[in-house]
Design goal:
The structure holds 2 protein chains of 2 kinds. Chain A is an all-alpha fold. Chain A has helices spanning about 10-20, 25-40, 60-75, 80-90, 95-125, 130-145, 150-155, 170-200, 205-220, 225-240. In chain A, α4 packs antiparallel against α5 and α8 packs across α9 (about 205-220). Helix content of chain B is about 20%, strand content about 20%. In chain B, β1 and β2 form a beta hairpin. Chain B starts with a helix and ends with a strand. The chains are: A mainly alpha, B alpha+beta. At the A-B interface, α1 and α7 of A face β3, α8 and β11 of B.
Chain lengths: ~240, ~375
């Protein structure tokens, strides 16, 4: 295949980079989702002016689509390591298929969590006039959650691996279950913070901050890092003023 | 690093009690021939010359307290570690020290030295030493780890020399430790790599390559190349399906092989050997109870209780199995992961026409049998080319 394609040093380098980082398209998806999230004058696919969703103007389907975009934008960058594990533990010819199956399982769990969140928001609609207070409370819950044993269990499980069958339906099943497992623990790890960012009247800024915080926690932080709950506490305070 | 701090704390205590002011932590060199494969005498005597109890004797060791050699030669051999040219290798390769990860406590792939001889010695001694949570309570732990540090220094000083990673994340990561007076201090790898300088000022009396590891093909590695970068991308070419329990008997697992399909390796294509290196991965080894060790062979003749040496690829010692198998605040619970460089064995099998391009048979021979209550399961065995 490579002989049929034009070959220049720059193209060869790019091909090698793509082979060494098969997760590149996942990050491209995430970047595209960020584009929709952050651009001004958003359409229905971006977060609409009707956001946050408790103002009652959004249909459930649209709100779920927004949730999907949020998940793709904020969560996929956290999945680099398990997605790479999936790719490199699969036969070369089905690396991308394995990664896509993993992501179906992962995003599927997040979408289920999205349905639950929207049901919760429907109940909270009557508090919409106190949005700042409610958001501050959820940020406080996120800060408190950060120092619980259950949260640390979820964070540790984000490094989970599992055996993957090499071919056939078992390979698809294993990749899907691997993604779903990560989705489950990721909801436990990041769900409250996602909810807080979604509720905030400053939701775009909060989404960027939450993503940076989660990426720091995933890739850089040491166990029992005190900075993250402190930061979430400050964000809670920021919503009161 | 932690050994240096421990040594200073003990040395200070020894001096405070009126002992010598130059006390230093010894190392246990178990690679100096069959007679060295026993515990040092000071750790097995029940009493000191004055008749008092010997605190260096840990009564619950599974092996070694009778003063006889007991360490198995296979898993003790540091040759696989000395074959490594890189400290921290890329994906699918263990390297001398281990793959690059974020900060974490374990469960993932080991460095080659950590698996063999480090884990092997822990499992062979047993008792407190068989579990990472209790190992340091057996005094022999400290001499064992002093030797592991010495082997690291020997690996760095081979001819041509090897290198530590130049990566700043590795060099600058701070660890919380204590100084000689118990005061909390932070140390980073870069502070202690030159052993003859501050803060520890020590020099080994012997950093020659152990006799068992001699004969390893030396290869010049450029300075600053502690981390593998521009190497072929690894490709999985075969894997077993479904988990398999390992028992106290020899067991063989079938690994279905597939043709190389990645363009990177196909481009390297040499008839019959489309790879530079071949690696066997034993993934997601989970279980409970005391750990065990297994010598691993490829395509060994069936029925042989101890297959010929030429089919041997390494020993998997399941030190840390219990802890790595439990999902909790520190561990994902994915189990242990072993990586073996099997290039030479695969080439031997091909040259002797014992290679089946459709299936690889991987035989596990217990070298330290699982004791009662042990349950060990291998998640998957896979073959990688690069």
């Amino acid at each position: 295949v490579s002989q049929k394609l034009p070959s220049t040093p720059a193209l060869d380098k790019l091909r090698r980079l793509a082979m060494a980082h098969p997760e590149w398209w996942m990050l491209l998806f995430s970047a595209t989702a960020w584009f929709f999230l952050l651009r001004s004058g958003a359409s229905c696919c971006a977060l609409p002016s009707a956001w946050p969703p408790w103002n009652g103007k959004q249909a459930g389907g649209t709100a779920l689509l927004d949730w999907f975009i949020m998940v793709v934008a904020m969560m996929l960058p956290l999945m680099v390591i398990p997605v790479r594990v999936t790719a490199f533990r699969s036969l070369w010819r089905r690396r991308h298929c394995a990664m896509a199956t993993f992501l179906c399982g992962y995003v599927g769990i997040w979408m289920a969590a999205g349905v639950l969140s929207l049901v919760l928001l429907a109940f909270l609609r009557e508090f919409q006039t106190h949005a700042h207070w409610l958001t501050a409370a959820v940020f406080l819950v996120a800060a408190a959650w950060q120092i619980t044993a259950l949260k640390r269990r979820c964070a540790a499980a984000c490094h989970l691996t599992r055996p993957l069958a090499p071919v056939g339906w078992r390979a698809q099943r294993d990749c899907f279950c691997f993604g779903a497992e990560h989705g489950f623990y990721c909801v436990g790890n990041c769900g409250v913070l996602m909810l807080a960012a979604m509720l905030s009247p400053l939701h775009r800024t909060m989404m960027v901050l939450a993503t940076l915080l989660l990426a720091y926690e995933r890739y850089r932080a040491r166990p029992h890092e005190r900075g993250i709950p402190s930061m979430l506490g400050l964000l809670a305070l920021a919503h009161l003023f | 690093m932690y050994l240096g701090c421990f040594e200073r704390i003990v040395a200070q205590t020894v001096a405070d009690l009126g002992g010598p002011s130059d006390w230093a932590l010894p190392y246990w060199n178990y690679n100096a021939g069959p007679a060295s494969r026993k515990l040092p005498a000071a750790f097995t005597q029940s009493q000191l010359p004055d008749g008092s109890a010997n605190a260096l004797l840990e009564a619950n060791r599974d092996n070694g307290n009778n003063g006889q050699p007991f360490l198995g030669a296979g898993g003790l051999n540091p040759k696989p570690a000395f074959k490594e040219t890189q400290f921290a290798a890329g994906a699918g390769v263990s390297g001398f020290g281990g793959p690059i990860t974020n900060f974490r406590h374990g469960g993932g792939p080991f460095g080659t030295l950590e698996n063999q001889p480090h884990n092997h010695v822990h499992v062979d001694i047993g008792g407190l030493m068989s579990d990472p949570d209790t190992a340091a309570l057996d005094p022999i732990f400290w001499l064992h780890h002093a030797n592991i540090d010495r082997l690291w220094e020997a690996w760095l000083n081979t001819n041509p020399p090897h290198n530590n990673p130049p990566n700043s994340n590795w060099l600058s990561f701070k660890f919380d430790l204590h100084d000689a007076k118990g005061k909390a201090v932070k140390l980073k790898a870069n502070d202690i790599l030159k052993t003859k300088l501050a803060p520890f000022y020590y020099q080994y009396d012997d950093i020659s390559v152990p006799a068992d590891a001699k004969g390893v093909t030396a290869r010049v590695v450029p300075r600053g190349a502690g981390i593998m970068e521009e190497q072929p991308i690894p490709e999985m070419v075969g894997a077993s399906t479904g988990p398999a329990k390992l028992a106290s008997q020899t067991q063989t697992l079938a690994v279905k092989l597939f043709p190389v399909s990645g363009p990177h390796l196909r481009k390297l294509g040499i008839a019959g050997a489309p790879f530079r290196k071949a690696y066997l991965h034993v993934e997601n080894v989970r279980g409970q109870g005391p750990p065990a060790s297994y010598d691993i062979y490829l395509n060994a003749p069936e029925g042989a209780s101890e297959p010929p040496e030429k089919f041997y690829v390494g020993t998997a010692a399941t030190f840390g199995l219990r802890r790595a198998s439990i999902g909790n605040e520190r561990h994902a619970g994915s189990g242990l992961h072993f990586t073996f460089d099997v290039t030479d064995v695969v080439n031997t099998l091909k040259s002797e026409e014992r290679w089946n391009p459709e299936e690889l048979r991987v035989t596990f021979v217990p070298s330290r049998k699982p004791s009662g209550g042990s349950e060990i399961e291998v998640g998957r065995v896979s073959l990688y080319y690069r």
